[in-house]
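Appendix C reproduces, verbatim, an entry submitted by the partner laboratory led by Prof. M.T., so that reviewers can inspect both the input and the predicted structure.
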Amino acid sequence: MREPEAVPTCPLCLRPIPPGVPQSRHHLIPKLRGGKGGETVLLHQVCHSTIHRTLGETELARNYATVEALRGHPELRRFFDWVGKRPPGWKGKVR
């Protein structure tokens, strides 16, 4: 009998990412800034969209190329803490 696959966790908001929940892979170094084929992390789509609405590609590549750095950004940290209290499938509207 096969073990059920573990449900991944968003490393930013720390909520589970169950099947069927909008999700996407974030290139820690943007593809347009040399990150094509580089490390990616699985995120909730709302977390991923918030990153790209908050930071430009150059800023991401230079200063926010790790999960720790993204969680350390003051505006993003407030969002991730807030959204972390929502259900895993919460999509909301991203400003």
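The longest strand covers residues 23-27. Additional entries are available on request from the coordinating office.
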